Write the structure tokens for this entry.
Amino acid sequence: MMPPNLEFRVYSDMPFSLISATVLRVRPIGVTSDYCPVCRKECRFRLAQAEHKRYFLCMDKGRHGHPHHELTCMTCNCRVERPIEERPISILPDPKSSATFEPDMLPIVSKRIENCTAMEQTRAEGKLKPAEREEMIRHAFFCFARLYDEDTFERLTPFARLLILVVSLIVAGAGYYAWTRTGSHTPIIFAAIAIALVFLSIIYWASRHSPRKRVRTWLAMALLPMDPTSEEIRVIRAELQRSRLKAGFQIRADKVLAKIKKLKAKGCTGVPNPPHSK
């Protein structure tokens, strides 16, 4: 149940930079099985390859860093990231076949699923040892650690950013032109409202597509049955920091514990509801 091999990512791009940007591009590959830390069992996942592309003046300048696999649970929709070495694919399949293609996975993945499932069964029976409990808490943190590295608008392409800018300028220009022609401030007000709605829609898009906006909830659900203390979280944060993972600096024990408390108040037991459609 050791955490996957993770690497540190740092980006200094501005969220809406049009000159230079690093964008996360995700391509569906197929389906696979793995252990879901939220469902607490082996689940089916949608499999995609994610890689960072470097753009300059909206032109693709090639891959930045190493690609990885993004797994989305078909039961609870949580996302985890795994090294591509766990499921080696020589030639990426056509995205149209992503609903049926299932790549072979290394024996270490099956072993991890068995270990995690056995440890969860031990926990459910109330026989979990302190060392095993610590390992389960650590595993939950490392499953989602890399998602804390992702910027909220990292999946927004430079073309989309340029389109937002162009639309905003056209709306602002139309409002200004109408104001100079009529002398009424109404067109300016409507233009400001329209531009605000454009940016609100982008924020909504990010909340729906960026796992960075939901990772704390997933982490809290994965930790809920263990009910960790602030000190236990502090220890794991220090370990993440030693691994040079940004999550070690961004995860706050008080907010994670508050989210766990909120989930308890809602009657959540740590196991999500049945699958839902999006």
